[in-house]
Amino acid sequence: MADYLDYYYDSEDGLRLYARDYPHAAPRATILCMHGLTRNSADFEAIADHLADDYRLIVVEQRGRGNSEWDSNTANYQPAVYVQDMFRLLDLLELGKVIFMGTSMGGLMSMIMNAMQPQRVQAVILNDIGPVIDPAGLERIKGYVGQSGPVADWDEAVAQAREINGKEFPDFDAADWLRFTRALYREDDRGIPVLAYDPEISRPMQDAQDEAVPPDLWPAFDTLLSIPTLVIRGALSDILASECVAEMQRRKPDLQVAEIPSRGHAPILDEPESISAIDAFLGGLG
Prior knowledge:
By secondary structure, the protein is an alpha/beta fold. The protein has a single domain (5-134, 196-283), classed as Rossmann fold. Helices cover 33% and strands 19% of the residues. The chain is built from ten helices and ten strands. Strands 1-2-4-3-5-6-9-10 form an eight-stranded mixed sheet, sandwiched between helices. The protein is globular. It starts with a strand and ends with a helix. The mean pLDDT is 94.
């Protein structure tokens, strides 16, 4: 695993937040990696290992996830607040233009951030997300986020993760499921696996607050028309429909698209097809 530094910082409203900083003395560019709704920095371990020789990577954990502090105000668990946390992080690190790599919710944030401060964006990689979220996938996510029961050990944690995500990764073997699960859970002080996120992150979405899932991101996507952009889609995805990708390509003819076989929502980014697409995209930036 590539070496990284633990970076802690305070949000504008006083929460202690965390990011992994993979340092580089002379990087080709800096990549800001933003995870999905229930995930954390461990999601990017494989791609970070692959890219760390050439790039500096800042791999974040949003409030309520991983090592970042939980928020007592659950209304703050929404993209508008996360985006402000990211801008503060970039300011504290004194970073100018960066590449955004966002999975699912992190991709939504990438589009919003580009619309707000395009001068800070060199390029964007969207992992299984677009301006329209397929309703079927959204309902599936609502059905499990914050509602999983406790587990007694890692075997039960793996079984739970597999039950929820089995259709998304049909070719996973036992080692894949254990690796996937260990990125999603943490051990408590008794050594028992617990999900590495605040169950209350689901509250805004369950309460159907518009801020939790932006209803129309086409205007934000359209601000990417002059920004080099790669979309990675799981061939089995129920979040990013192929019709949405087609419309994205119609609006942005130079959009690069990679479809990853045997993957639903969302590709892990360790797949050969994902790595090849990311390498080719980054290599084309100069």
